[in-house]
TrEMBL record:
Annotated source species: Leptosphaeria maculans (strain JN3 / isolate v23.1.3 / race Av1-4-5-6-7-8)
PROSITE patterns: ADF_H (PS51263)
Entry superkingdom: Eukaryota
Designated name of the protein: Similar to actin monomer binding protein
Keywords: Actin-binding, Cytoplasm, Cytoskeleton, Repeat
Major localization listed first in the record, in broad terms: cytoplasm
Amino acid sequence: MEKELSTLELDLTVRNDYDTFLNEESMFALLLSSTGRDLKPTVHIPFSKQRSSFQTNLNALEVHLDPRVASYIFLRRNDTFIAITFVPYLAPETQRRFLLDNRHEFLRQLGERYFAQSLICKEISEVAYARTWEEREEHIDNQVVPCDTTCVQEKLQDTGPGVQDIGYRRSKCRACDRRMKNKISADAMEALDTLSTPRSFVQLKVEAKTEHLVLISAFTYTHIAISFNITDITAEDVANLLPTSNPSFTFYRHTVSSLLYFIFHSPDSSPVRERMQHTMAIPGLVNMHAEDAGVHVEKKIEIHDPSELVFKEADERVGRFRSVYLRNKYGGTESVYDSLEKDAQFLNDVR
């Protein structure tokens, strides 16, 4: 028999983990998973690093979010605490119902005075994308959109002293790269942080089985100079570092111009599936993961053999990709294209 609201008692381990989260200022978030009858501590998520961006910390949280598991999340932002009831569509109904029915009771037992806001999210992007947070804040005084059968329609209200209940508000950001971006390993994300360094070099690939972005190699000018016994890095030096049998992504900070190049090397001899996986990963990597690391790509190049690599603006391959076919011609693999909104509507209808 499931616990009734009036007799709900949070587990001691939950309370202890919650107290640790409150007292440890280095903690960004605490994730509690729902069993449908109770809450169980899942993971503490520390701030990525000192002065890291909100999006960078959300990336660390996103790794632990499962679209098939309902969770209760405590998050620290701007010296305040926010309670998030995460009830994804694919999670079991018992888990979702338990969290939705008891979310106010959780706050009451743990201490409402600590929290500024309480909200409901149904998609990972609504939790892990800074743009959706900004969107919610812009409409903080508006009524939430009509809910479906999984939540009660409500206006913004106070659930307790100082707690503003935002409820559920569907994000308008439905057609963004972040929804389709590949997950990235921690060491790969750390490597992207080094790209502000002159002559830096970072190489990634898409792991075929998991479709995660993983690090191949990363080094600064000093390491390359030692390896190659050279005093400068030319296009030929970079070409020598490109894998010849499988697709790869290479970020390179040019020695002379200081421009950051993104090189997509897709050998024609590599498996078609791998080439497609890498092509689809480009927008999320360049426009999301790199930008999250404070890195802005200035030049993009696609090549199919290392000998094709050149660093000249006049070269027609710079900034263009032949991999995507749009409107009767090949165009760039970018985040915006003519049919973006139409494709987004199609995806939404499928969901």
